[in-house]
Amino acid sequence: MKGLLAVIVLFAVWPFGSGKEFHMTPSTSVPAATGTVKVQKDNQNKNTRLEIKVHHLASPSNLTPPASVYVVWVRPNGGEAIKQGALRVDEDLKGELDVVTTSKNCDVFITAEQGDTVTVPSEFTVLQTHVTTS
After folding, report:
1. Which residues contact 132 (CB under 8 A, 6 or more apart)?
2. CA-to-CA distance for 117 and 54, rounded, in angstroms?
3. Domain regions of the chain by residue span
4. Alpha-carbon gap, residue 40 to 94, rounded angstroms
5. Hey, CA dihedral for 79, 82, 84, 85, is it positive or negative?
6. What are 48-64's pLDDT values in tens digits?
7. What would be the CATH architecture of the domain defined by 16-132?
8. Backbone angles phi, psi at 131, to 5 degrees
């Protein structure tokens, strides 16, 4: 059974190699929030995997003004922001979202939104960082 688990874990991370971790900067509206983006490059098709984890991020309904959801965005250098998905925060104020992008050099940021059907980010950014792959 342990062998099978090891094989499953191997295939979950392969073909992505080891990567770099970037710390996200919180906005003044959520000063206790922390976040990291672990970046891994797929050596076969050159995509980039982003493992986004947040801690101490208040429920969006507790913000001023209140929101209903957090949304993760990727903005390639010089490009438009691309929605990656909704980030749900649990009762322990933790959340995570894994995404795959073709971007190698981009901003990753999380906004508080009124719904997850938005197509452009609001001005209410709660965490952000810039990531690059080598």
Report:
1. 39, 104, 105
2. 21
3. 16-132
4. 22
5. positive
6. 999 999 999 999 999 99
7. Sandwich (2.60)
8. -120, 150
